[in-house]
Amino acid sequence: MLKCSGTIKECVLDTLSDLVGKVEKRARKQWITQEMISKMDDRRKWKNVNTEEGRKKFRRLRNELKRATDNAKKEYLENICNEIMKFQRTGRYDLMYMKTKVLGWKETQGIQNIGIEDSQGNRIVGQSQVLKNRENYITELHDRPNRPETLEVEPEEEVDADEKDPYILQSEVEKAIKEMRNKKATGDDDVPGDVLKLMGDGGLKIMTKLINTIYETGEWPKDFKEVTMITLKKKPQATKCSDHRTISLIAHTAKTVAKILRRGIEKKIEDVLGENQFGFRRGKGTRDASGMLGVISERTLEIDEEVNVCFIDWQKAFDRVN
């Protein structure tokens, strides 16, 4: 199954590269060249190779990259400063100020806050320390005390054949893929969702076979289980981990499997949920609950009765898996 997943990934990426071409990464800084980006990718590959040769190549690439970026940045800033001085000497102050803005300084924002606060309120700025602090925060947020190491799952052989769900159909896979939004960020497998929509009947058959194998065995490919987590600021002066919103970039193939499984769960759990459950439910959103509250309030006030409403702030109610 893992081999089948890797084959699908390689086939999709090779076809995409042949037909569309390899998309080069865009540098965020003006002085970063494509050669530097290639060295960054090579350095990233050797970073996790825990051998003597791997550590030597990583250190060599790191030193070469640092020298190249320092020299390129110095040369870039010197050229910008020379142009600014040239415009000043010729009296072109409009062009001088425009060129100054290229340096990235914004008077309205001033100096940006660097670093983040840990659980004790201490400011940390080191990249490794910041990442470790975020890891601890997310682990605590999504974890709970005394969590069991293993989940008690009913053995498959003890489940009645009539209670087992049928195999996943190709039409279900096709529908889940078509419902994907366009131009969404890729996961760790680098397979765009737009490319999955272009698969023909043969590709859908292979995808359906893979998903049914995952469904039967319960084993997920490595690319499906690993995600890239990104933090977005909730407010400009964000200094704590709680001031950031965390999003996960999941592989689109994994999203397809999750969407199909979710639909199967929704069909069975709909009979269990009460009529008062609103939100995260098809046809019963929080807007419906707000509308009902408004109607009840209006009718109660019409007969000169009191209306008591209790508002509860469930902070991060849906962030913790418990």
How is this fold's topology laid out?
Blueprint: H1 2-19, H2 34-47, H3 52-89, H4 93-101, E1 116-117, E2 123-124, H5 127-142, H6 170-178, H7 193-196, H8 201-217, H9 222-225, E3 228-233, E4 244-249, H10 252-269, H11 286-302
Antiparallel strand pairs: 1-2, 3-4
Helix pairs in contact: 2-3, 3-4, 6-10
What does this structure look like?
The protein has 11 helices and 4 strands, in the order ααααββαααααββαα. With 322 residues, the chain is mainly alpha-helical. The chain folds into 3 domains: 129 residues, no CATH class; 71 residues, no CATH class; 38 residues, no CATH class. The strands form 2 sheets. Strands 1-2 form a two-stranded antiparallel ribbon. A two-stranded antiparallel sheet has the order 3-4. Strand 1 and strand 2 form a beta hairpin. Helix 2 packs antiparallel against helix 3, helix 3 packs antiparallel against helix 4 and helix 6 crosses helix 10. The radius of gyration is 27 Å and the shape is extended. The protein starts with a helix and ends in a 20-residue tail after the last helix.
N→C terminal distance:
31 Å
Number of domains: 3
Helix content: 40-55%
Task: Indicate the mean pLDDT.
Answer: 79
Report the radius of gyration as a whole number of Å.
27 Å
N-to-C order of helices and strands: HHHHEEHHHHHEEHH
- The structure class reads mainly alpha
* Unreliable runs: 107-111
User: How many beta-strand elements?
Assistant: 4
The biggest sheet amounts to:
2 strands, antiparallel
Strand content: under 5%
